Please model this.
Amino acid sequence: MGGRDRLSCPDGSCRYVFWDNPTPVVAAIVERDGEVVLVRNHGWPAKFFGLVAGFLERDESPEEGVLREVREETGLEAHSPSLIGVYAFREMHQVILAFHVNAEGQIALGEELAGYKSIPISKLRPWPMGTGFAVKDWLEARVRD
Model:
């Protein structure tokens, strides 16, 4: 099906096909007080920080999902989500919908996170995978504007 072999139910009347589609993920460049908030998940190496990100939930728009993730993971109230781009993250079998958001409030980390850091936008550098491509595109767009 669809030009390739796929797992399917062996019962001819079942008609179930396992499409193995990528999982949608929302990610946010969280800007607060002129800095970008980066977070570290418990499972990541001690020096690695990245964007706030999480799975899009059923019946949720990407804009709603990214605001929810920022609130759940950092305690910040984010607003005005602006789409940066959509990125295939093949290594994790995901498609990332990356947004820029502005946020206010005090950081209160959710249980998924081990730490955070706020860095000036001028010191933000993209990384060569996953959400790093969104950081690159966002920084380049800022220079053009």
Notes: The helical segments are 62-74, 132-144. The longest strand covers residues 77-89. The mean pLDDT is 92. Residues 86 and 97 are 5 Å apart (CA to CA).
